[in-house]
Write a structure and sequence with these properties.
18% helix; 55 residues; alpha+beta; three-stranded antiparallel sheet; 3 strands; globular; 1 helix
């Protein structure tokens, strides 16, 4: 599954939650980073996090 951008945030500023089949998740910033993580570990899924802000 490929990540889908759901808002109009500028490229590189959107956040994605990337999860494995066991439910272990991590948050990454940017579409390219989400794709990179998913290529490294097959079987992951990604979800766009609406309104996520860096702390």
């Amino acid at each position: 599954m490929s990540p889908i951008k759901l808002t109009d945030a500028p490229d590189g500023f959107e956040y994605y939650k990337v999860c494995d089949p066991q439910g272990v998740c991590r948050v990454v910033r940017g579409f390219q980073e989400a794709q990179r993580v998913m290529k490294e570990t097959p079987g992951l899924t990604a979800t766009k996090l609406p309104g996520a802000k860096a702390t």
